[in-house]
Amino acid sequence: MMSLCLEQSDTSAETYPRPLRAKEREMLEFVLPAESPGYNDYRRRIATMVVLAEGRRGKGNFVLGKPGDRADITSPLPSVVAYGAVETTLETFTITVREVVCDQIDAEIVSNRGEEIPDHIPETRRWTYSTWRPGMLSPATQSPVREVKINKSLVLAIVAQEKRLWLFDGELLMNHLIPITNYYNELMFHKHIRDPQVALKSGLLFDQIHRYSDGDLRAAFVAYNSLKRRVKVKAEETVVEEKGLGILIKKYFTKKVL
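Below the sequence we write its predicted C-alpha cells.
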C-alpha cells in the first residue's frame, strides 16, 4: 500500500543519522536472501542507506533512507515484504522489513523482552518466511501449508497453526505477508456470509479453513488485491478449476493420446 511522502524531523534523543550496526545489517540481510531477485534489490538499497530516525513504533523500529533525507514517520505503515526471527537461549528477536516507499524503508528488530540487540548472541535457531517455496513446510513451525494457486506465478500460502497467510511471488521469489482482516472481509463478501458471529471474526478463517475451496480463497485474494494492490494479477491468468463434464472429457482425450 503506497503512502504519502511527508517530511518529518527526528523525535528521538539518539543522534541521527547513524549507520546500521553490524548486527542490525546481518539480521536484515538474513530475511532478504541474495538469491531472490526481489529481496536482493532491497539488499542493494539498504547498502546505500543510513538510519534516519527511530520509527513510529518506538524502540527497535527505525527508518532507513539516503543520507540527507528526513524520515517520514506519520504516513500509514507500508506492507510487510520480509519477516523472520532469531531465537536465542534467553529471548527471540523478530525482524520485519516493509515495502520501500519514497526511497525509505521501515524496518524493525525487536526482542520479546524489549532488549537491545547485542553484538554477539547465543542463537538456538533462526528462520524466515523469505526462503519459503511451494511444497515446503512453514519455516516457523514446520507445519503443513495450504497452497492456493492464484495464477502461474503466484501462490497464496495459509498456515492454520500459525494463523498466518502470505503470497509467494514466483517471479521475484518473494513472500508478502497478508493481513488477515481485509482478506477475510473479501472472503465473507464472496461467500455471502452476513452472520456477525462469523463475518466479524477473522480468526475463524484458520479454524474453518477446510470449509473453503481453493476457488473461494482465490476469489477473495483477487478482490482483496484489487483494493490493496499488493501484486499485479491479470484476470486472464487466474487459474480456473475444471469441474464436471469438462474435466471428464479432458481426461478421456488425454488417455486416448497416451
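Residues 214-228 form the longest helix (15 residues).
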